Amino acid sequence: MRIAERGFSLLEMLLAMAIGAVLMLSVGRFLPLLLAQNLQLQQRVQLQQELQQIAGTLEKALRRAGYCHGQCAGPALTLVAGGSCVLLRWDENSNGRWEGVGHSESDLYGYRLRSGQLEMQRGVDECNSSGWERLTDPAFLVIDSFSVERSHTRLQLQLAGHVGTQDVALVRWIEGLNL
């Protein structure tokens, strides 16, 4: 006994191809949307990571503010321009004093927001000087706001930035043990 082998008919093949074409067109319409959403998500994650890294650097500096292994004179923390410029002092080499401006091992540090970028400088005691270094890449990230507010020994760090259409804001509370 032989079983008759039979393939698809022309009509069945045309119908299958039509259904496949409709499916491919519908998938093709959603692919650019899916790719755009993927790009936005990647930008948001990268922005979040960048801001968290910057906030971690600032948090570490703010925790150090006021440390002195002896008798240090002067303010440990100065907030200028509504907290968008922060001047700090800590005894980095534990020699019992805060080295001033112009010293090769100065214990004065500054962080400021300028033109959408966060900047840092060592050996500075005012916010309007030149020579500050950017902590952020202007080709990728714009910092919208940076501020530090003080309540006794507690500090509130606020940092917000954007990349394209993605916005992220961070708030961190820091205990300044040496303030």
From TrEMBL:
It is found in: Membrane. GO terms for cellular component: membrane. It is a single-pass membrane protein. GO terms for biological process: protein secretion by the type II secretion system. The keyword Transmembrane applies. Keywords: Membrane, Methylation, Transmembrane, Transmembrane helix. This is Prepilin-type N-terminal cleavage/methylation domain-containing protein. It comes from Pantoea wallisii. The lineage of its organism: Bacteria, Pseudomonadati, Pseudomonadota, Gammaproteobacteria, Enterobacterales.
